[in-house]
Amino acid sequence: MMQELKRKIDTKEAKIGIIGAGYVGLPLAVAFAEEGFYVFAIDKDQEKVEHLQKGKSYIEDIPQEEVKKVVEEGLLLPTVSYDVIDEVDVAIITVPTPLTRYREPNLSFIEEAAEGIAERLHSPMLISLESTTYPGTTEEKLLPLFQKRGLKVGKDFFLVFSPERINPGDAQHPLREIPKIVGGITPQCGEVAYSLYSKIIKKVVIVSSAKTAEMIKLFENAFRYVNIAYVNEMSIVCKKLGIDIWEVIEGAKTKGFGYIPFYPGPGVGGHCIPIDPHYLRWHLKGLGHNELLLEIADAINMEMPNYVLGMATDILGEMGKALNGSNILILGVAYKKDISDKRESPALRLMELLIEKKANVFYSDPHIPKLEPKDFPSQKPALPHLESQELDEETLSRADLVILATDHSCFDYQWIADNCDYILDTRNAFKGVKNCRAKIYKL
Ligand SMILES: NC(=O)c1ccc[n+]([C@@H]2O[C@H](COP(=O)([O-])OP(=O)(O)OC[C@H]3O[C@@H](n4cnc5c(N)ncnc54)[C@H](O)[C@@H]3O)[C@@H](O)[C@H]2O)c1
Fold first, then answer.
1. Which of 73, 377, 391, 435 has its Cβ near the most Cβ atoms within 10 Å?
2. CA 123 to ligand 1 centroid distance, Å
3. Residue ranges of domains in the chain, CATH in brackets
């Protein structure tokens, strides 16, 4: 069975089903289709499927032409139906793993996808879970579902965890260049997954278990979370000491070893960094271990929008103004530069806080045309519907204070600083600006 599946993969006869065609699933589906595999992109979002069927991309890193080409060639087959799993040899799960209201793991998307596969499991088949989750999920949640069908893992079907490591908006690290970790339930599972992923990724690294692979992903993201918290806290410390944190970072970078730069900001956003550490903490809590470092990091990072709010209050105070009634323009609301993903964006939390204080908040972000109450963290229905404002002289002149929350490359920083009076820069984006009209305050 294993040799038969490997042969199908090696000859590209194997058909692949990717469940969840989002930021992770779509690039993966396109990469396999470009390699000559038949790929079903299975997504329960009818709108996304219709877009793909028309050859349109909704993800900035995947150019329209790439999607169009593989759809026209009949290699990328978008669908809302799980029935295609009957004919696939490989199923890859790339659905979301968010948190519940109480900031606990929400595995319902993984469970739904896994049940959809289990109902149609046949032999031989490879199943790879790529969604980030706590150590043990693949073995404890997925494996029993599949075994119920009477098939044997490592013999009749093959199950692995293989974390996704893409970095949206980062052209320097394309999917094919990012080494892929694979952890199988058995060594045979890892071997089959190795054959598959090495068709599209230069370096595939097999680790000893699915659990280890799950931990590697959380370990990497928790590392970022803790270091971002460290630099966020140091930015507050430096402010108290009258030292420029950005100059400190540049200075530290000159060492060349033993130091990796991280940068402060208005908080932490996206579907990974602020969420994944909670998967680990929650799991450890269940085992009776109270993890402290991530808890502290979380407290620091979550406080940053409040800290920026405090800075904005002080700046307006210097002008003799209050937040209540002031016009605040937020530049950039995506969670990081040059992308259109607003999930968990700290800019949205900051806007919410400013609105609570009765400031008149408006924003400009060419990547995010509109915001609805459900986009904000509290999702209160009373929150406004907002549209991104054209960034022109009129928009800038309306603002008592401009807060740069996300440093998109499309912003002309010199021009902005020449056309407004007060700027609070949370990303050091105005560093190259000279002799401008605005008074610029930095984090
Ligand atoms: N976005 C990133 O940069 C990134 C990077 C590495 C890892 N990850 C991880 O990858 C996973 C996916 O993240 P994403 O950013 O691609 O999410 P996403 O929301 O962009 O995409 C998920 C897709 O799955 C679809 N979906 C949800 N439930 C489904 C179901 N039961 N059946 C079929 N389709 C379903 C949604 O409609 C959506 O299109 C998460 O676990 C995330 O933590 C994300």
1. 391
2. 26
3. 2-208 (3.40.50.720), 294-442 (3.40.50.720)
Q: What is the CA radius of gyration of the chain?
A: 24
Active-site residue (options: 272, 410, 420, 436): 272
For ligand 1, whether the C-beta of 271 sits within 6 Å is yes
279 vs 294: CA distance, rounded Å: 11
Q: Which residues pair with 360 in a beta bridge?
A: 327
The rounded distance, in Å, linking the Cα atoms of 249 and 264 is: 10
* pTM, two decimal places: 0.95
Helices (H), 131-275: 137, 143-147, 187-197, 210-241, 245-253
- Residue 324's alpha-carbon distances to 313, 354, 356, 359, 361, in angstroms, are 10, 9, 9, 5, 11
Residue 165 CA: which ligand 1 atom is closest?
Answer: 6
Profile the chain (443 residues) by mean pLDDT over runs of 10 residues. Answer: 94 98 97 98 97 94 95 98 98 96 94 97 97 98 95 97 93 95 98 98 98 98 97 98 98 97 97 94 94 95 98 97 98 96 97 97 97 94 95 97 98 98 98 96 97
Paired with 86 in beta bridges are none
Give the ligand 1 atom nearest the CA of 112: 31
Burial class (CB in 10 A: 0-12, 13-18, 19+), 166: middle
